[in-house]
Design a protein that fits this description.
Keywords: Membrane, Transmembrane, Transmembrane helix. This is CcoQ/FixQ family Cbb3-type cytochrome c oxidase assembly chaperone. The protein is mainly α and 66 residues long. It is built from 4 helices and no strands.
């Protein structure tokens, strides 16, 4: 039943391609972000759950969290 409903929609074959390209572009962008990201920023963010606010502010620059 569902197969017949989907076949009757004009241009339905474009939707899987569009969703694949969105998926591919998102993960390509995420990979690019990981490769280009500032190592100090990543280190600071990884330490956030382990420190309270006073120790974190003493060890980082003011614009390091932006």
């Amino acid at each position: 039943m569902y197969k017949n409903v989907l076949q009757s929609i004009a241009g339905i074959e474009l939707y899987p391609l569009i969703s694949f390209f969105i998926f591919f572009i998102f993960f390509l962008g995420l990979l690019l972000y990981v490769v280009v990201a500032n190592r100090q920023h990543i280190s600071t963010m990884s330490q956030l759950p382990l420190h309270d606010n006073d120790t974190l502010q003493a060890h980082t620059e003011p614009d390091a969290l932006c």
